[in-house]
Amino acid sequence: MERGKTFRMVYLSLLVTFAVAIHTVEAALPLPIPVPGAKLGLANIITLLTLVLYGLRSGLLVSSLRSIIGALMIGNFLGFGFYLSFSGAIISCLVMALFMEIYRRGVITLVSVSIAGAVTFNIVQLALASLLVQNFLLFRGYLPLLLLLAVPTGFFTGVAAAYLEKVAERIGLQSVKV
Fold it and tell me: How far apart are the first and last CA of the chain?
């Protein structure tokens, strides 16, 4: 295996590890907001950083492994919460990857990409939950509240990812888009 591929694999392994650790710690913390399904989404910092450094394929890998391994660690693998989290993580990663193209052109900031991901995550989770419990009235009650919460959490995640992107540049971590 050539040196570049080895470094990429090591970096992706570290990113998955960080994302799983953050996911697990966040699941153990009591939510400061008493809204069912609301999360701070701190592990998305790592997903966003992975998209910046390595592109969509690697972002999807980190996002899916974080969801699967994190669910195994907190004990909800293949449960209701796992399906909501996994589907939200994958689809929000895809949406953030689309917004990354606009970001790379300098039209929007990483914070905007992050907010788009947070909003998408909440919409996907709510849509799947509504489908699974066969009650689409959930949208009327929860969607405005979840979207209101997605903006500040997405903002914070975007600021943190932008900071880490600058740190990565400073230490010479080169992005390897795949």
Answer: 16
